[in-house]
Input
Amino acid sequence: MAEPTSRDPQNVVDIDSQRARKDPIVELREIRRSFGGLQALSNVSLSLYPGEIVGLLGENGAGKSTLVKILTGVLEPDGGQILVDGSVQRISNPRIARELGIAATYQEPAVFPDLDVAENVFAGRQPTRRGIVNWGEMYEKTDEIFSEIGIKLDSHTPVYHLGIADRQLIEIAKSLISGARVLILDEPTSVLSSREVDSLFALLNSLRDRGISLIFVSHKLDEVTALTDRVVVLRDGAFIAERPTSEVTISQLIHMMVGREISDLYPSLTRNAGDVVFEASHLSRPGYFQDVSFTLRKGEILGLAGLVGAGRTELAEAIFGISPPVSGTMTLDGLPYVAKSPRQAVQCGIAYLPEDRLANGLVMGMRVPYNMTMTVWSRLANKLGRFRTRFMQRQASDLAKRVQLQAGRLNQLTSSLSGGNQQKVVLGKWLATEPRILILDEPTHGIDVGTKSEVLGIVAELANSGVSVIFISSELEEVRAMSTRLLVMREGRIVAEFETPIEPHVILEAASGVVSGRVS
Amino acid sequence: MAPPRTALQQFFGRSVFKRSDTALLALVVIITLIAAATLGDFRTLSNINNLLNTTALIAIVAIGEAVVILARQIDLSVGAILGICAYVVGELSGHFSGALGPIMGVVMALGFGAAFGVGNAFLVSVLKMPAIIATLATLSIYTGFQIILNNGSQLYLTQVPPWLAGLRGNAWFGIGTFIWIAVICLVVVTFLLRRTRFGRDVYALGSNPDAAAYLGVRVRLRIFQIFALCGALAGLGGMLYTSQFGNVDATAGSGMNLTVIAAAVVGGVSLFGGSGTAANAVLGALLLGEIQNILELTRISIFAEQTLQGASIVIAVAIYAVVSRRLRRPVRRQSIDVDVGHDAALAVETSGE
Amino acid sequence: MSSVRWLLVRWEVGLIALILLVLVLGQAADHDLLSSFNLQTTALNSAVLLCLAFGVTPVIMTSDIDLSVVGILALSGVVMGYLFLHGVNTWLAIAVGMVIALVCGLINGLLVVLFDLPALAVTLGTMGAYTGGSFLILKGLAITTFPSVVVTLGSANFLNTQIPIVVVVLGVIGIIMTYLLHGTVFGRSVFAIGGNRKAALFSGIPVNRVRIMTFVISGFLAGFAGLLFLGNYQTAQAGMGASELLPAITAVILGGVSAYGGTGTVPGVVLAAILLALLQSALGLHGFSGEGQTMAIGFLLIIAIGIPPLVRTYQDWNRRRRSPVPRFASAGPSNGEEGM
Output
């Protein structure tokens, strides 16, 4: 069990006074960054001191990953300064960040599966003796650092044998070997089991004790409060607050993350849910989700909330036939439903807007009308098999009107559209199938405010006209405003069901596993 | 802690003798024993000599090809490089007398071979052509050179300097020179792959090219070195070819491309890159060479060669794909466990708020 | 009109320009280039190349590759020749050859798609296997007599014109392929799969079915190419046609089909094949041997693949020079919008 040393009041005092004596390793001053029309970070300042674990909190879109990318040299800020050891630096690429001692590990660790653990740890900097790779030293040093920080891995194992938790450990050891003083962990626990989380936290604590500065980016507030020394909260690209972890409660954190603005962003929903259209019973896919059962009614918007890694996308992919469930049953209009491929799902009237529209939703090299009608191409052929281009253009322009895509944008290459317009094309593509069930996975991810409200308006209209919607979103405000009924998933199971309207902090608590002081 | 390691393992590292390698070696030994026992023609000294020499030649070129495949590339032009160097070495090394002859011969073989390899590397690295298409193009270009060199006729055994002509028959300490050369190549390349940054970068490039570039591997340099090494070994094979076959014409080496790839792949080098050793290439050459020899002797068909090689590539790739999918841990959590103990502890911590 | 579309249109125009260039220079150098006899010979000699190119085009468009087409050509050609030799009914023999070609293509498709093996490795292997099959059947023999139907198909002219039958036949095949790839749902699916296989799959396109079909088409046309080979060269030998692999792939890539799939046109491939054929003819008239011509094709392939990335790099450099915005170093949606 990880011992939360930061919680002891005496230690808190010690850490504060310790920190007061030390200078920050990295200072971010008034960092600004925007993409197109979207201001991702506005005047964010942050200092990182040696020997502490900082929790970086914020909802999707708050600016966390942009900040991380700026620290690691993947992006450069539009304004503001970065100081390392007191002097201004320009981190224009990842190599410079590494040289300055800033390292990061992500959910999917970048390793060499065919090579063994020691070589992965020493990737790019194998110890040599007179030009010859010194395996003995490599294994020894790896074993040394493993025992120093408490990792129990055999340095001779080929990495393809290892699961993701161990690969993360390798990445962490690798950054230590390369002299990292600042280590950023981006959502490391969303793919770990709770036992693996404990081991990881023990490791992070020992790193902290060695003087490393750690940034722990996570949605999991229970973990953040257990592990970190202080927390920094971002919201909508701005710095909101910084507190010693011992002085905040989770509900306070949620309050800071979510804010109190009520926006006209969201359409009003009509609540006239009809009969049950779809029912899932005890769906399971080991490793991803377990024993999921729910019903879906005609015309309702069923929100599906939860933290990253809770299994929502996997559930959606199971319903849509991409990775069918291993056990459990589904019915559609009372009849058994099985889909072994997306094609079958589409034929049954189910549509799925995937989370990553670039990788999974659009063919960038094609023009908009083709992307917009891709799901119904087979209907565009005449009896001889000819692809009726003009008919397609008409379909596409009808769809464009339905998704409020300006006519001027119609015959362009899809790659030249903005993110918001691209998402409209994907939405249009699915509307073309006249679905009965529409599953949306993070539909407003990475699009500007104006387009967001248009898209959400279309979704509300669809529900009103009888389409059943499953709305997956990690944005609390959004999922609560857009659902007539809300399910919360955590670690692969459905843990709560709410009728909306409901307070956002209740949702987050259910998603994090803490509900008003009682275990859920 | 890890079990104590034998001296051999310590020198080469852990992965020289994997389970599949032992199985292949056993297969080769078994086939040899069966063939020796049942086929009279197999046992003759001249057949064994022939077999060993041809196998050694293929093995040398296959080792070079293996290095390229390990880096997730491919080289279809090795046969042509071999053929050109066969001619060049045969023709030119006669101008050097005495001990200078063999020395210059080897230098020319390696040098010209490497030069052609650099040509391949240029296309792949600078022009960013996929290796398969680049080496398909250079195959035709180099074959063209080969034909121009031969200029309608061929190089005759009589034109080849005596040291080269006799190489196939020579033996040092009882073992044929070809074998020695093959062993030297094996040792050298294994050392390079296992003990130098170059070699480790080869594996890194094959295992995860994006991460390799990100972590500071000098990709461009390595690509040049890899293709140059492959070309050099093909050139060396060309020199041996001249010794083995005597007459070198414009078709020298033309069947080699498929053969060496098959040898490497069957021996255990993964076509996906990142996995395999030089010893694999040698094992594969042994196995395929033997089977080919037996097919010839039993008159089953001399003409089965290409089918054999082609089918074995397909089978090897399929087996590797199936096995590696079984073997590799899916990069996802294996179990969702609602650990009651963990949650209870949390409740204790948070209830105080 | 966006720049990529413009480039593509320019590509075919560029090909036409090159063809004219070769015609002008070639005719100036050796006055026989444009003679009807030479044009006929050129057309006959490039029939096999074009037929193979037609078959390989859809495969490359889905971002797969099929190296085994020459093996299928050899195998079905040898089988047909063998059957002809043994007095089997001509049409039956042809049917058998074509069925074998279809089956070979199907095997390729099943291995690559159902077993999820890399197309490069598989077709490298099946190329050897199929070519080897031709060796097993015919061994060292060469067949030189063929039914008149076949010879007519491969060498004679259409009715009373100066145009060889193969040109007409290939023209028909070309029209069918153009229609298939540019005018049907199947063709659109091919482009979608080449552009983004996952997006196509998620959109309900029957990706596996389409990919297997491309291999079958490739096999079928390779078999037909074998028939044309027999008719033109009137020789059946084990391993025949092996030298046509490079020109066929060059014609496809030179024709504008990206090696990574998703773009290209059939007319572009036709133009590229014409260009290659004329180039070979011009070089041949000027004293280049067959191998010299092949070398030239190799160089052409390098240039064809090397140019688009260089052009793109130049365009990027130009764009950056004109508007110095801090560029991001890597991964992120290319249109620059991000959340979080």
Summary: Chain B has one domain: 12-28+39-324.
